[in-house]
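Q: Structure tokens for this one, please.
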Amino acid sequence: MKVTISNLTFTIGIVLGSFLAFDLIAADDLFSSKGQAAEHGGEILPVDEAFRFGSYEDGDMLTVFWQVLPGYYLYRDKFQFWRAGSALEIELPRGVMRQDEIFGEVEVLSGLVQVQMPASQPIEVSYQGCAERGFCYPPQKRSLFSSK
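A: Here is the predicted structure, written as tokens:
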């Protein structure tokens, strides 16, 4: 088989061009959240989907809840509650201990997490959680307002 220089140059150009295009696509994925998620086998959910937050009133009590999806967890010690700028002492459910890459040995909550408190308002809530695949969300803050 005889290869001419012009064919060889053309073939090398196509091969190098293909590698360059692949590298650019890989670099784009590496620096995007989809790329990070794909690297771990799936997409990382937005914080409000991973930790579905809500509240409801029943008489004089306010129930605040998070539905934590499978594969995600909330740090028990990162919960904070305030009313009129003063910290509230709220009884949180017990969690499970986990060795965390960032915070070390921590207690985490998953599934349905609920807390109750008197319904006087407004109340500020902050919390933080992570995906089990190693992606942690920044602390979140929510305000609750009541009809009472």
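A few notes: The CA atoms of residues 29 and 140 lie 26 Å apart. The first helix runs from residue 5 to 30.
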